[in-house]
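Quarterly update, task 2.4: S-adenosylmethionine-bound model.
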Amino acid sequence: MEILPHDLQLYLEDHCDPEPAELQKINRHTYLKVLRPHMLSGHFQGRLLSMLSKMIKPRRILEIGTFTGYATICLAEGLTEDGLIHTIEIDREYEEMLNQHFKSTNVDKKVVLHFGPAAQIIVQIPEDNFDLVFIDADKKNNLLYFNTVFNKVRPGGMIIIDNVLWKGKVYGAENDTDTKTIRELNDHIAKDTRVEKLILPVRDGFMIIRKK
Ligand SMILES: C[S@@+](CC[C@H](N)C(=O)[O-])C[C@H]1O[C@@H](n2cnc3c(N)ncnc32)[C@H](O)[C@@H]1O
């Protein structure tokens, strides 16, 4: 999953804030109990999400792809007093674990957990002024999610999309379906004049988008 050399990745982790103890437990618990644990954001990316959220001070956040709640909790760190984070997960298997994780980190009152396919749920959420959206679910639908959520983001609001470098394949010669889909997403957003954008080479590539 790492684009950067492993030594550099370790150096970055050593020179940011330590992973909070409760998040360390969730990280470990995910690796012990859940298939494909590498999907979790982890220490460095989690601190980045927390930092961005604290800079934005959002009142409303939407996360697409909850998994075991690691990024939800990091994003919730920047919420205003009356802030809420809506998060969408298709797989009910995580429900019990998610409720435990949100309770143990005291964010349970700030999280609205939705189960179902994101494309259907996004349009049902009664919010139209998101300050921050994190897209991190099934990658083939990233463009659909970007387009569906766009009118629900306030001007000046941010959309973050994970995995846009796809282990470096997007700028290589690979032409498999997944790589082509992610390349098309990146090209589409690069040309979209309604937004400012840049890709941060963090982990698997983090696209930061600001709605004008
Ligand atoms: C990469 S993981 C999310 C990781 C999490 N955001 C974090 O950083 O810790 C992707 C999640 O999206 C969920 N997912 C996949 N397809 C989905 C869909 N169509 N609608 C909602 N969630 C979906 C998966 O079940 C998985 O839990």
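Highlight for this quarter: The CA atoms of residues 45 and 202 lie 7 Å apart.
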